[in-house]
Amino acid sequence: MYAREPPPHALVSAQAQMAKLRGLEDMTGLLDSYPAGTAALIYHLPRVSPREPGSRRGPQEGLVGARPCTDAHDEHNRAPVEMILIDSQGIAASARSPAGVDQIDDLGRALRAQIAAGLPLEPSRTAQPMISAALPVDARQSLTEALLPDPVSGALREVRHLIIVPVASIGTVPFAVLDPWGEGRPLIERMSISIAPGLHTLADEIEPWGASFDRPLLVGDPADTGLPALPGARQEVLALALHLGATALIGPDATRRAVMAQIHDADLLYFATHGQADPSNPLDGGALILASGAALSARKLQSMKLHARLAVLSACDTGLGAAHEGGTIGLSRAVHLAGVPRVVMSLWPVNDQATQALMLGFMKHLPENPPAEALRLAMLEVRLTHPSPQLWASFAIFGTPR
């Protein structure tokens, strides 16, 4: 049985996470239940010392794009993020970023927009129009330097699976495209990557991964949404239904009532639909769009007791939402808090046809690989024919890599 702590209404803050971590004198064994080659990169926010009266100098003064500090909260968000890399032997490396969470958030949004800029607006799986952003010259390089500095980048060379334990919006950064060694090879070539909901989940007891599904809930291309049809999503789900010997909810059959009738007992949740995220109202504004314009909100999902071993949210922006000190509040976390240990989430508005190829590759590799590695293999395959990261780097695993 998957441990479902913390309760759905709560997030474990980064400060609380690091307090727990610092209480462990010996971190050897923290990853004993994980495959060989696994490492966890834990980000945290340092305590900010009060400044001298009258001083306006913040700890990030001089950084390009740094925001003016107006109060203690801004000072906290400007303080350089710190990180610890843990492997099977204990602490492998630690570093301090040159950036704070505000600047990392700005760079992350810029990189996602930069990658997604070449996508056609229709058909994509977003229920909202794309918004242009002012982009830095090289957001990827800036983020790589901020999130994977030396000596952390050097210690990553032997890692085969990397667990990111984020603070704030770091979990929405497309780590797959970062190049920490300046070799022109994205991180995904060397290792699979997953985003942990929090430090507390690393030690969770969990049922070993198995890709046999007896009660899948498959939802694709709902009808009458007021949004463009998704032929790629339809074919994606129909192909999966044929492979699993299951019946899919397609078009007008993809109603909220039909979904609710199956969702609690399903062992696989698969939604290939339009999706939306709302950073100002992540629980009510974050939603999967169903037939006749009905929506399945993050708040509703979070309140459920689900039994699926895997959820695939093959829609736009399902990994986005509102940044919190302990991570991002939105659809993917809501599904995880409802009891699903592994959630496939998207980081920007995804292309309908490219997503079909990526997700079918992902499902093809699942029987022989855990989800994070299956997604890595699918990304590499799509990258061979679609080298632009907008088409292969749009998804990530939220939850356990096991």
CA gyration radius, whole angstroms: 20 Å
On the 0-100 scale, what is the average pLDDT? 84
Number of domains: 2
Structural class: alpha/beta
The largest β sheet comes out as: 11 strands, mixed
Tell me what the structure shows.
The protein is of the alpha/beta class and 402 residues long. It is built from 13 helices and 16 strands. The chain has an eleven-stranded mixed beta sheet with strand order 3-2-1-4-5-16-15-12-8-6-7, sandwiched between helices. Helix 3 (101-116) packs antiparallel against helix 4 and helix 11 crosses helix 12 (371-385). It starts with 13 loop residues before the first helix and ends with a strand.
Describe what is shown at a glance.
With 402 residues, the protein is of the alpha/beta class. The protein is built from 13 helices and 16 strands.
